[in-house]
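ESCALATION

Customer reports they have been waiting on this structure for their group meeting. Please prioritize. Original submission:
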Amino acid sequence: MRSLLSPCGSRPGSRGFTLIELLVVIAIIAVLVAILLPAVQQAREAARRSQCSNNLKQIGLALHNYAEAFGSFPLGGAGTSTGPITTPGGTCAWTGTDPMRAPWTVLILPQLDESNRYNKFVFEQNFTCYSTNRQGSAANNAQWQIPLSKYRCPSDDFFPQQPLTSYRGVEGGGGVPWCSSSSRPTSRFFFNNGVLYYNSAITFRDIADGVSNVLLVGESPYQNWSDSDPRYNEGWASSAFTINTTGFPSVSTGVRFPLNTGVNGNDSSGCFGSSHTGGAFFVLCDGSVQFLSENMSLEISQQLGARNDKAPLGGFAQ
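Update from on-call: job pushed to the front of the queue and completed.
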């Protein structure tokens, strides 16, 4: 039988791709990639947003369980300093020896199914506020250095291997804080009209505006972390620092500025925002999670931070 193959083993009339055909194929593949890549990125961000929302949902549930077990929400930051003895909007005047104690992020660890981690802290000893400038005891500082993914938004890629937090308790809100640091009044300030502030012990009854109208915890990607100057690096388990006319609220802050207007770096955690486009997630005192638009009225967002200002009532508009 006569072979249908040519002496070289190829079928008669077969040929390879021409250069033009190859370029056309490459162009088609490039177009498909250009079309599909944004969709893939959007799908990934949607998954990250969902995970972030779930993180806050679990944090809100943990805070509720804590309040039911102990009769009040945890302290936003704990210590023995008293005051500040000042008029609203003045300079902080803390008194006391300033032992740095456990923040709310540590106090609710058992309610986050992190009892093993909780039991490794020594609550009678100082907690770390800053990495080198204000370290706590050896045991507490060792735990401070270990990241906890439940406190990180997956979209927040700012120093992902460091023990940072993407979420801060809401101390309160308004244009005028309870007091401010003498050296940095726009970045180191304290509120006491919210739920998670320094030495707070707020009950559900104290939330006069209604639990569906008051913010409890919100996103804040603006971290105090610097590889070049590690003295003031903070973490998810950082204690509040209060002494004399200075102070730093650490894992809690107040609603004072518009969302997404902060800048990463030293002393820039006094702002809420997120790595998501258009706004940030918050968990309210009723346990619900809301995405607040960065275009929301600053006055409304400040009112949502306060527990007893009688505004806004009957829900809120974005």
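Sent to customer with the following note: The chain has one domain: 21-305.
Escalation resolved.
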